[in-house]
Design a protein that fits this description.
single chain; alpha+beta; six-stranded mixed beta sheet; four-stranded antiparallel beta sheet; 3 helices
C-alpha cells in the first residue's frame, strides 16, 4: 500500500513538472531561443534536406593549371560556400573556376545552404596536377617526365614498373627513385 502511494505521488509530481515546462521567461526552451513547440518540428525537417553534389570536376590527374567545378543541391534554390585547399569557406556560385594552380594535389569542397541550414557533409574532390614535358605508357602503367625534371609513374607495380622501390600498385603518381629535380 505504501509503495503505491509513493508511486502515485511520483506520477503527480511528474505531471506537475511537465505542466510547468515552457511556462514563463525562465524555461529552458526560452534560453535556447525557441518560442513554442512548432519550432522543434521545423528544425528537424529542414536540417535533413540540404545535400550537395559535385556534377563536373577536373580529371583525377591533370596537366592544366586551372580547374572548373559545377555543383548543385538537392533542394534548390540554395546558397553555396566553397573551400579550396583548406583556405576557409567563402560564398561561391556554380560553376566555380580556379586558375594559376600549382603542381601537386589539391582539394575542393563545397556545401549548400538553405534558410540558414548548411549541409553537414560537404561534397569534396581531390585531384593532382602534374605539368609534364613528355609521357610514356606501358601495358598497365604510365610514367611522365615532370616540368621540374622529376619522373612520376602510376598504375600496376607487381614487378617494380613504377620505379619507387616497392611492388605496390598506385592510382596516384609516385616519384621514381633517382629521378628528382
Amino acid at each position: 500500500m505504501k509503495q503505491s502511494k509513493v508511486f502515485l505521488f511520483g506520477i503527480i509530481v511528474f505531471i506537475l513538472v511537465l505542466a510547468g515546462c515552457g511556462q514563463g521567461q525562465d524555461s529552458a526552451s526560452d534560453e535556447i531561443g525557441f518560442d513554442n513547440d512548432e519550432d522543434f518540428g521545423v528544425i528537424s525537417s529542414e536540417q535533413s534536406t540540404v545535400n550537395t553534389k559535385i556534377k563536373s570536376k577536373p580529371a583525377l590527374f591533370s596537366n592544366s593549371t586551372s580547374a572548373t567545378f559545377k555543383f548543385v543541391c538537392t533542394s534548390a534554390p540554395c546558397s553555396f560556400k566553397c573551400n579550396f585547399d583548406g583556405a576557409g569557406w567563402t560564398k561561391c556560385k556554380s560553376p566555380k573556376t580556379y586558375t594559376g594552380l600549382s603542381e601537386g594535389t589539391h582539394t575542393f569542397k563545397v556545401k549548400a545552404g538553405k534558410n540558414g541550414v548548411w549541409d553537414k557533409s560537404p561534397a569534396s574532390y581531390s585531384w593532382s596536377i602534374y605539368l609534364v614535358s613528355s609521357i610514356d605508357a606501358g601495358g598497365d602503367h604510365t610514367c611522365a617526365l615532370a616540368s621540374n625534371g622529376g619522373v612520376k609513374c602510376w598504375g600496376l607495380n607487381d614487378r617494380g614498373q613504377l620505379g619507387n622501390g616497392n611492388n605496390t600498385d598506385s592510382n596516384v603518381p609516385v616519384d621514381v627513385v633517382g629521378f628528382g629535380p
